Amino acid sequence: MKIRGLLLITANKSQVYCDACKTSYWLEFSMNIKLSTSGVMRKSLIHYDHVLIVDIDNDGVVRKSFTVPLEHDPMISLIDDVAQGFHYINGEPGKPIVIDCYTSNQQLVKFIQNIMTKTFEHATTNRIDDKFKFTISTFGHRTILYSTRINFAVSPYAEPDFGDLEDSVKGIILDTDEIEKKELDVEEILRPYSWVVIILPLAKKEGYFNIFSPYLIENKIPFFLDSLSNQTLKNMFDFIFATTLEN
Predict the structure, then answer these.
(1) Which ranges of 34-190 would DSSP assign to H, the alpha helix?
(2) pLDDT at 233 over 90
(3) Least-confidence region, from 141-150, 190-199, 233-242
(4) Contact by Cβ (8 Å): 107, 60
(5) Which of 37, 142, 165, 176 makes the best surface tag, with the fewest CB within 10 Å?
(6) Predicted TM-score of the model (pTM)
(7) Distance between CA 88 and CA 75 in Å, rounded?
């Protein structure tokens, strides 16, 4: 029975209408829950891009309901998009893909670790066949993902983590902060790789771009050079997918 747009509760279920969804939902709860001093119990349901909040009184009547929008985090969406892309690549035939990332930037490290974890989730919940293999290992400051085709490592140490993986497409994400701190020989580091991403310091972006780009162009190495930002991370993986899917 509807009373002023609200529905009475029977037993431990109530049907409540969500204005944002334009749909009614069954709300389950326990009558044994201790109510607040105001005599109202609050329940919440997550619906897509919003949360439905419902207040129920001592008599089991829904007294108030309203919605609160969920904040959209574009980085969470990007992590999921990249992970889905890696999962798709793992299900397709082709050469193994090696990605070595050398950085101690915690923002970038955490971002890549989240991609690895999300890729693992996709591999376990959306498994295509029994040929999938997947391992994530962490030791020291190094995290490594081994999978059917994608092999991805993030580390502050400029040392290859996969050795000579036969007939693989190798790419590198190199943070110039590591170059400066450790005085690395960049040409020596880049030599084994068929594509290159270099993260540039914002204050020295133009100078570093002018240093690296002629070498990469001369050696016909596909490259992506930019300073670190949310948009850069999106563009970086657009570049990586475009480059690796050609093989």
Answers:
(1) 74-90, 106-125, 176-182, 186-190
(2) yes
(3) 141-150
(4) no
(5) 37
(6) 0.69
(7) 20
